[in-house]
């Protein structure tokens, strides 16, 4: 069963609605016990890196994610959820992440850190990957202030160019991250969620 981590944010409902459109069975989980039997986990969050990470720790969901990771089960982080998969972040200070994918989260615009990257951008595939199988490059919708500086460029499987390169989709073994909002990105976004649900561990 696919589980969406329940941190009480609106984006979880939007992802759940997208999954229902494709008839993908899922549950919402806010305890380690509810996550223990999940075959796939989606982590989406809003707000700041610090607050989201502290919430995971307070609810012991970080430990559940570590167990999921050690069992090599598929995990997808979306938006801020993708950022949490990385080693660390500069958002509102320096904070440690889950370190499932090596890299650091930095502002898109160091001169204007409160100016978001918002709108539609072309998504370019870097190389073939099971998550992208059968999909075509299209425009996708972004709304974020920070992005990933990935340590290993081979972990980036898709990107967008908006004055600078945005690491749009990352993949490291059974861990995946999507920077844009798949639930607002038309058929391509929905198909990415479907492809994730079909990946076997």
TrEMBL record:
SUPFAM superfamilies from the UniProt entry: Class I glutamine amidotransferase-like
Pfam families: GATase
Pathway(s) this gene product operates in, as recorded in its UniProt entry: Amino-acid biosynthesis; L-histidine biosynthesis; L-histidine from 5-phospho-alpha-D-ribose 1-diphosphate: step 5/9
Gene3D superfamilies membership: 3.40.50.880
Domain Glutamine amidotransferase residues, every copy: 35-187
Catalysed reactions, as listed in the record: L-glutamine + H2O = L-glutamate + NH4(+); 5-[(5-phospho-1-deoxy-D-ribulos-1-ylimino)methylamino]-1-(5-phospho-beta-D-ribosyl)imidazole-4-carboxamide + L-glutamine = D-erythro-1-(imidazol-4-yl)glycerol 3-phosphate + 5-amino-1-(5-phospho-beta-D-ribosyl)imidazole-4-carboxamide + L-glutamate + H(+)
Gene Ontology molecular function terms on file: glutaminase activity; imidazoleglycerol-phosphate synthase activity; lyase activity
Entry annotated with the keyword Secreted: no
Gene Ontology biological-process annotations: L-histidine biosynthetic process
KW Cell membrane (keyword) present: no
Name assigned to this protein: Imidazole glycerol phosphate synthase subunit HisH
Organism in which the protein naturally occurs: Polycladospora coralii
Gene it is expressed from: hisH
């Amino acid at each position: 069963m696919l589980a969406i981590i329940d941190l009480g944010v609106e984006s979880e409902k939007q992802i759940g609605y997208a999954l229902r459109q494709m008839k993908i069975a899922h549950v919402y989980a806010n305890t380690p016990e509810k996550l223990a039997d999940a075959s796939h986990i989606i982590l989406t969050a809003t707000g700041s890196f610090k607050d989201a990470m502290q919430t995971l720790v307070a609810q012991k969901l970080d430990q559940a994610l570590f167990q999921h990771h050690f069992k090599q089960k598929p995990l997808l982080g979306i938006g801020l959820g993708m950022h949490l998969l990385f080693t660390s972040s500069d958002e509102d200070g320096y904070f440690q992440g889950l370190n499932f994918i090596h890299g650091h989260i930095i502002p898109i615009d160091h001169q204007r850190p409160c100016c978001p990257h918002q709108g539609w951008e072309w998504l370019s595939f870097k190389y073939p990957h099971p998550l992208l199988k059968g999909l075509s490059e299209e425009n996708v919708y972004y709304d974020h202030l920070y992005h990933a500086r990935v340590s290993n460029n081979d972990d980036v499987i898709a990107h967008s160019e908006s004055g600078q390169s945005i690491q749009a989709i990352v993949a490291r073994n059974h861990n995946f991250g999507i920077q844009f909002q798949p639930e607002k990105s038309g058929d391509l976004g929905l198909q990415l969620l479907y492809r994730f649900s079909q990946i076997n561990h």
